[in-house]
Design brief:
Number of helices of chain B: 10
Largest sheet of chain A: none
Radius of gyration of chain A: 58 Å
Order of helices and strands of chain B: HHHHHHHHHH
Distance between the termini of chain B: 27 Å
Radius of gyration of chain B: 19 Å
Strand content of chain B: under 5%
Helix content of chain A: 40-55%
Helix content of chain B: 55-70%
Shape of chain B: globular
Structural class of chain B: mainly alpha
Distance between the termini of chain A: 160 Å
Number of strands of chain B: 0
Number of helices of chain A: 12
Shape of chain A: rod-shaped
Oligomer: heterodimer
C-alpha cells in the first residue's frame, strides 16, 4: 500500500490511505468501500467563483464596517460623558457664572436709574463742617508766598476778568455781581490770594504783611471805582 | 482556483491591524497566507462540512463561510509559526459542531410541532442510487463516528491530526473508527455482495 504524506495541507490528497499501523489493517473490502465513499459521497462540483465571491464579499464587508469601527472607537470613551456632565453640573452649582462678566443681554435688561433719584431734592447744598486745618494751611501758604506789589489797576483788571465768573445769583448776597456789577468781595479776594501768580513761593515778589495792609486799603477804592465805571 | 486571490494592492490585503505582530510586513504575509488558504481550501472545506453535516449543502456552505469569516477576524491572534490550514480546519470543525447542536435543538422543536426536518441534498450528478445508499449509510453513524470516519478515512487526516481537530484522544478516535467501519459494512453489505465497490475503485 502506498502511503501519501501531507506536507502542507493535512488530508489534502484524494485517495489518501492512512499511514497509521492500525488503519493499514483494513481489509480489501473495507478499503474499496472507503474509496467508493471518497469518490461518491461528496457534494456536486462546486463553482470556482465561490471562493472569489467570498473574498469580494469580505472586502465589501470590511469597507461597510469602517464607519462602524469609528463608531465603536468613539463609543469606547462614551462613558466619559457621564462624569463630564456631573462635573459641569457641579461647576454650575458652585456659581461659576457669577465670577464671569455679566452678559450683555443681562446688562441691557437692567433699567436705568431715574434722574429724579440722582438729582437733589432742593438747591440747598450742605457742605458740612469747615475743615479746621484749612485756615492754618491757608495762612501758612500766604506766609510762605512771595511778596507781590499790587496796585489798583491790577485789582481792577483781575476783577473785570472775574466778572460774571465768581459770585452767585442769590438775592441775599449784597455783593453779588448782579447788583454791584463786580464780583463778590470775598470771592475775588480769595481768587487773588490763591492765584498762582500772587502766591508763587519762589518769586522774588513774595508778599509781605505790609502788602496785605496795602491791599486792604486799596480794595474799597477799587470797588468804588468799578462801580463808578459801571454806572458811567 | 488560482484566480480567486485578490490583487496585492486590494484594500482587503491591507487587513486588520495586528499589534501582536512586530511589523506590517509580517501581518501582510499572514494575510497573503489567508488569501491562499481561501483560494486553495475552499472546495475541501465545503466537501468536509458537507460530509460532516450529512449531505446538507446549504448548511455546509454557511458553515464554511462562517468559518472563513471567523478565521479572518481571528487572524491577528494566529501564531505565524503554526500551520494555517490546521488552524482553520479546527475552526471549521468547531463550527460544524455548533451547527449540529443548533440543528438538534431545531429538530427537537420540529418534532414537537410535527414538522418535517430538512432532508439532505444529494448530488445531482453520478449514480443517484449509489449516492443515496451511501448517504443513508453515513446517516446511520453517530456524530462521533461520522466525524472520525470523515476526517481520517475520507479527508485524509492522520489519526493524531484528527484527534487534535476534534479535541479527543487518539484512543477514542480509534474506537469510533472501528465502530464506524462495522456499521458501514453492515449497511453497505448489499453493495459489497453486488460487487459495486469493485466497479468503483
Amino acid at each position: 500500500m502506498t502511503t501519501l504524506k501531507t506536507d502542507h495541507i493535512p488530508g489534502s490528497q484524494q485517495g489518501f490511505m492512512p499511514e497509521d499501523p492500525e488503519l493499514e489493517s483494513l481489509s480489501v473490502a473495507d478499503r474499496r468501500m472507503v474509496e467508493t465513499l471518497q469518490s461518491h459521497y461528496q457534494p456536486a462540483q462546486m463553482e470556482s467563483w465561490e471562493a472569489r465571491r467570498f473574498l469580494e464579499g469580505l472586502e465589501a464587508r470590511r469597507q461597510a464596517h469602517a464607519p462602524a469601527a469609528a463608531w465603536r472607537a468613539w463609543n469606547r470613551f462614551g462613558w466619559l460623558s457621564v462624569p463630564l456632565a456631573c462635573a459641569a453640573l457641579l461647576v454650575l452649582a458652585l456659581g461659576w457664572p457669577s465670577a464671569q462678566p455679566q452678559p450683555a443681554s443681562v446688562a441691557s435688561s437692567v433699567s436705568p436709574i431715574p434722574k429724579s433719584a440722582v438729582e437733589p431734592a432742593s438747591d440747598v447744598i450742605t457742605l458740612g463742617e469747615p475743615d479746621p486745618n484749612f485756615n492754618a494751611a491757608a495762612s501758612q501758604a500766604i506766609a510762605d508766598a512771595a511778596p507781590v506789589t499790587v496796585d489798583a489797576e491790577m485789582i481792577l483788571a483781575m476783577s473785570s476778568d472775574l466778572d460774571g465768573v465768581v459770585g452767585s445769583d442769590d438775592d441775599d448776597d449784597e455783593l453779588s455781581t448782579s447788583e454791584t456789577g463786580s464780583p463778590g468781595l470775598e470771592d475775588s479776594t480769595l481768587a487773588l490770594v490763591f492765584s498762582e501768580e500772587l502766591v508763587a513761593p519762589d518769586s522774588d515778589n513774595a508778599w509781605l504783611p505790609d502788602d496785605y495792609q496795602a491791599l486792604d486799603a486799596l480794595l474799597p477804592e477799587a470797588l468804588n471805582g468799578t462801580s463808578e465805571q459801571r454806572s458811567l | 482556483m488560482t484566480s480567486t486571490a485578490p490583487k496585492p494592492d486590494s484594500p482587503l490585503m491591507k487587513g486588520p491591524v495586528n499589534a501582536a505582530h512586530a511589523s506590517q510586513d509580517e501581518a501582510r504575509a499572514l494575510e497573503l497566507r489567508y488569501q491562499a488558504l481561501v483560494s486553495s481550501q475552499w472546495e475541501k472545506a465545503v466537501r468536509m462540512a458537507w460530509r460532516l453535516l450529512e449531505g446538507d449543502r446549504a448548511a455546509a456552505e454557511d458553515v464554511v463561510q462562517e468559518s472563513f469569516l471567523r478565521a479572518w477576524k481571528a487572524l491577528p491572534t494566529f501564531r505565524s509559526d503554526a500551520e494555517i490550514s490546521t488552524w482553520f480546519f479546527r475552526i471549521l470543525v468547531r463550527q460544524v459542531g455548533n451547527h449540529q447542536r443548533w440543528k438538534g435543538v431545531r429538530k427537537f422543536w420540529h418534532g414537537l410541532l410535527k414538522e418535517q426536518t430538512p432532508t439532505a441534498s444529494l448530488p445531482q450528478t453520478g449514480d443517484q442510487g449509489l449516492q443515496r445508499r451511501l448517504t443513508e449509510a453515513m446517516q446511520k453513524l453517530s456524530p462521533g463516528q461520522r466525524e472520525a470516519f470523515v476526517l481520517v478515512h475520507l479527508e485524509g487526516f492522520s489519526l493524531q491530526e484528527a484527534a487534535e481537530l476534534l479535541d479527543r484522544s487518539p484512543g477514542t478516535l480509534k474506537s469510533h473508527l472501528h465502530r464506524a467501519l462495522t456499521t458501514l459494512r453492515a449497511e453497505l453489505n448489499e453493495l459489497v455482495e453486488e460487487g459495486t465497490f469493485h466497479d468503483n475503485p
